[in-house]
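Following up on my earlier thread - several people asked me to post the actual chain instead of describing it. Fair enough. Here it is, all 606 residues.
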Amino acid sequence: MKALFNSPARRIGSLLTVLMVSLLAANAYQALHRNVMPHESNPSAAARALAQAIDEPTHDSGAYLAAFVASRHKDLEAMALYESILANQKGYDMDKVRQAFYVTLHADSVDASFIFAERILASHQASPTLKAEAYALLAARALRKNDIPLARQHAQDALALTDKGLSTDSMMARLSQVILDWLALPHKKQVLATWATASGMDAPFFQLQGALAQRLFPQPYHNPNEAILALYQRVIDAPNPSPYGFLLYGDFLWRIGQAQNTRALYRTLQSRGEPFTTLARPLLQDSLANQPYDEAKQPLVIRDAKQAIAFAFFWQAYRLDSGAEAQAHPLSYSAEKLNLLQMALIIDPLLAPALWLKADILQRLNHRPQAQTTLATLEENPLWRQSARGKRLSLFLAENKLDSATALLEATIAQDPNNTRAQRQLADLLVQQQRFADALIPYSHLIDTDPQSQNDWHIFYARGVAFTEEKQFQQGEQDLLKAIELNPNAARAMNFLAYSWAERNTKLPQALDLLKRALTLRPNDGFILDSYGWVLYKLGHYEKALDAISKAIAINPDEPDIRDHLGDVLWKLGRKNDARFHWQKTIHLITDEQKIQDLKNKLNAL
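Reply from S.P.:
Thanks for posting it. Predicted structure:
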């Protein structure tokens, strides 16, 4: 059971006990063990087995606990399944329907969320706010199907709720008004004027939407509307301006030939961090090279009302991502942001900023598989590919999925063989997996083709390690010496080279000198002290070796190689009982069967 519920086990154990006693029959606990424990490593299977083990036709306890298990494992797919079962079992319970509505929406089970939205609208128990969200979702569905009259009707229905308790400045009321405004685009100029003066509702939001409207204006760009420029400037001058505003403003300035101002905006955007640095870099490069404007390269291109409405939903979610209230209540705000983002993506499934923010929120909520799926979709967009892959890589590494991380980097290099960053990441990852022969290929490619890598001591150090581990000692020695030449303070390289000499009983005086240099740089490094003591041991200076390795073991008491070396030194000094103690302790610190057998042979020889 502890393995099933993992780290939250202590916190939720008492709650589970209460649930089992109050909801289940006496044999339910046995059913839980019998059916769930075989699926400990698979939370979805565990949740399903739990429901099958203890559910009854007239009882919802199985689905309830299955949903509970799924939520603890951050498994959105299983959560959506069992929350839907609960909502269907208790269709009169609006709390269950509301929960199923949100969870299915977050889990991309949008067809199910549409059904729950319709049930919410048919209920007398649902609040005006919940009904407004349901109308917004159905409006998004209508827009996806290009059913403009139905989308307009749902937006009007949502606004009509203001007579029944929905605040006129609530998020869904504002977004419903945006839908109606954008669907009235034959009157674009009046819409823009309305937004420009909408200071009483949410000025920055409507200002940016007004700025977006210029993309649909028919007038020639060589005679820009001064009001549009003024709107953009207000967005940029806001206390916490949106990076997206910079992108849009730069796009507009580039169109009208103001290259210098365009470059200034993109330079500012580059300092905003990812993903904006990645987005701004190619735009800035084209601008500096005086390349003609190319709309296909723009990260945000609003071509019609549908895309504008999708962006409006995204933008509201983006604004929720900052602010003191959002920081104080991150979980509730994250759920609200996901609602808005999913509506945006129902309208425009490839809206890149919405995909990026959705993946970021899912990652923060620890829903990593769904974050990966979202990022894989975003990866299809060339402008966002590098940022999406970087985020996917960090997720794989956080889960210790090294094979998946390696495959992602290999795919990146296959698509872009000159991607030096990916080559470096792949090589380092292969070394981490002890795939030294494979790591030699990208390291060598970097050294042969990249001038910057040819002066990077770490790459020579890493390749030297890989050569040495592959018993290509001459090449390894050359690389390690090169690393030390490039960085005279590279104590790690000195230590590895000296230790490799000691292990092969070669160049021991040079190894001792190299380790003395390393110790002047890092006098309290247990691994360097161990290497120094090991070289002394090889030279027959056992008392000095004992002093150095004893200091090393005090710093790294659980390092098996150091403790093994200490046993060897003690044995040479005739202190066999002490040697036995350290060798026995080493056996408990390692899992390598060959090393364990070698230590047992030493013990048997005493």
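The chain has 35 helices and no strands. That should answer part of your original question.
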